[in-house]
Amino acid sequence: MSMGYFASLTLKNYPETDIFVLGKNGITIAIQVKTQREKNTPNKLFHVPEKIENTKNTFVYVWIKRDESIDCFIIPSKDLAEISKKSRDNYIASRPNVSKEQMRMIHVNDLQSFKDRWDLLGLD
What SS3 class is residue 108? Predict the structure, then answer.
């Protein structure tokens, strides 16, 4: 228990959910966590699930910098779907010869307004 929340890791039979959290207000939410290390991902991109529009999970993107400091970005699935769609559409529009079936990705820079936005979990 941290900050008054109860968190539990899920088992493998909960696809697309890594953590369930019970808030002080009695609300339970499902969180999906994605982690990248800067030294392994110099282009600073995170994968976004293709069917993001079909989930209500909140996503926590964890960016581990070269100096081992950590940035956390808390983003509701609705916002993530919107930003990643726009990013993919812009990528395809600027490169007319690429396949239209590009994976959804999001750049760390596009997540900055969600940095440390734990309030978006709605658990207080």
Answer: helix
Residue type, 69: S
For the whole prediction, is pTM greater than 0.70? yes
> Nearest to residue 46, comparing CAs of 56, 32, 25, 57?
32
Question: Which CATH architecture group holds 29-116?
Answer: 3-Layer(aba) Sandwich (3.40)
Element of type H or E holding 83: helix 77-94
CA 38 to chain centre: 16
User: Looking up tokens 């990013």, which residue turns up?
Assistant: 87
pLDDT band at 2 (very low <50, low <70, confident <90, very high): low
The full set of domain ranges for the chain reads: 29-116
